[in-house]
Amino acid sequence: MVVQAFAFYLFAGILILSALMVITARNPVHSVLFLILAFFNAAGLFIMLGAEFIGMILVIVYVGAVAVLFLFVVMMLDINFADLRKGAMHYVPLGCAIGALLLFELITLYGMWQKSPTLQANRAVPSEKMADLTNTEMLGTILYTDYIYAFQLAGLILFVAMVGAIVLTHRTRPGVRKQKIADQVSRKAEDVLEIVKVTSNTGV
User: Fold this and answer.
1) How many CA atoms lie within 13 A of 166 on its CB side?
2) I want to staple 46 with a disulfide (CB 3.0 to 4.6 A). Which of 30, 55, 114, 185 is the partner?
3) Structure pTM?
């Protein structure tokens, strides 16, 4: 229990500090790096809770794809962040008010939370069918049985979005020069080169 408590407070403390650094760091690259650190610590907390599937998905998807994509976009785009921050202090009172309202709602929700009377009994005596299954197997069983139609619908929406992005990228637009590989392969040397015989000391 002491090791688990120490690991929890370690992960949670680093997570809170890195989350604060994400929004307070002046360098956007540093913000993305602190975001990656926050994702890793959140994954550690999920693994401690027994949700290893969610923890691995958090590392693979968010750290391996989303955060790295943010990092490359921030590094490749030439954005003047000093101009973006101008006038930001005018929105601080509104942001603090909204944050206080959300904090009040969370505290109220936590204070009114009531546990089910059968919760302790279910924890003490788990069902025989689910007792031998891992967290990932239970998620897969629920996802591909009770929510199979919603899962397939989500996949269809993502597929349509991917096809739409490809169509918008490869649409024909006037004035846009595209590479024509067939023309490049079939081009002959005499079509693009001109051999001129120059006499010495005379120039072209």
Assistant:
1) 6
2) 55
3) 0.56
